[in-house]
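SH3 domain-containing protein
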Amino acid sequence: MREHTVRRGKLLRRGAQALAVLAVAVGTPAATATSAEAAVCSTSWSNKSDYKSGISATNVNYRSGPYTSCDPYGQWSNVQVFYHCWRYGTTVNGENVWWHVRKEGTQQQGWVLSSYLGIWTADPAWQC
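Predicted structure tokens:
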């Protein structure tokens, strides 16, 4: 009987250890989000919108993906852009819709947080 109790105790401890490891793994979204963000930085996009508007702010980063962890290609100030499509990304000041855009008259393109753009829609038809 004692041997059965000892084995059962070891099994319960191992089970508790496994649950603790699982809880830590599930409770660390930052590590998982970083991997997911890295994959999204090289995400594909398509030209679904014919909308054009301006960025009236200065020194706005345009990035390789819709996350602040994605590399910035550069900055734009007071430019006209063509909107391609949008997707959800990093939330900045309560906003998480990012648009893939191209600067008018150039081939410069990248992802810009919608709060810097002259568009406030996340029309599902224009989602990447």
